[in-house]
Fold this sequence. Notes:
Order of helices and strands: EEEHEHEHEHHHHHHHEHEHH
Helix content: 40-55%
CATH topology: Rossmann fold
CATH class: Alpha Beta
Number of domains: 1
Mean pLDDT: 96
Largest sheet: 8 strands, mixed
Structural class: alpha/beta
CATH superfamily: Alpha/Beta hydrolase fold, catalytic domain
Oligomer: single chain
Strand order of the largest sheet: 1-2-4-3-5-6-7-8
Radius of gyration: 17 Å
Amino acid sequence: MTTRETVDVDGVPISYLTAGKGGPLVLLLHGTYWSRVWQPVLEGIAAAGLRPVAVDFPGFGRSGGELTVSDASVPRLSAWLVRFLDALEYRGPVMVAGHDIGGGVAQHFALAGAVEVPRMALVNGVVYDSWPVPGVARFRDPEVAAATTRDDVLAARRISVVKALGRPASEAEIAEYLDPWTDPRVARSWLALAGAADHRHTMEMLPALLRSKTPKLLVWGEDDPFQTIDYAERYAGEIPVTRLVRIKSAGHIPMENDPKAVTGALTEFFTRRREEQGAQ
Length: 280
């Protein structure tokens, strides 16, 4: 059963989705969306004996607080995750998966070394110079961002959500995805994330990634119009210990198109570490 829980981080109530009753922790990170993107796969991950935690960054989804541009960069969000884990009173290795810009945060978190990350997965995540996409990049201009209203953000997110789902969706489902951005505070946080979106952060990680021996999995919706499959193919070919799993007939949020395939790929990858340890 999936539940939504809250923990205090730096005096801010932080919301996260989880399922199951324990097991090795798998941290699931969103990007320009929110924890809702992970909902279709949480129970399947938990059924494999893992503890999925899909967190909403401050100012996103159901979390409190509000991001500023200085707080919303990939390195700053990566550092914030350490404090989130402290608030959970969790000690030990953490496996991580990141979607969209959350993929950039996942890579930084895995490389930073503040927490042991034995396995890392990217699900249609940002890599190299694949981001920010035009629909996000235009808000990097401070004047554009300052002139953008909550209703403007809602309209822009509606277009992105419909395109990202990659399948017909009811108005109720679209409204569920959009609901957090009806709050002006959350809309401002999204603008801050857009303002901080800079592929310099993923490009600067390349030397460390090329040396990395951490097992990596790419799970990719082949029809993604935002983070296109050619970036995943390049990453799998260049970055050591990386495997690519293609999700056919799936878009930017493949969890919504084929949750069974995404769940299977993630659980097989993340439980392999436990099986390897048991064999030692």
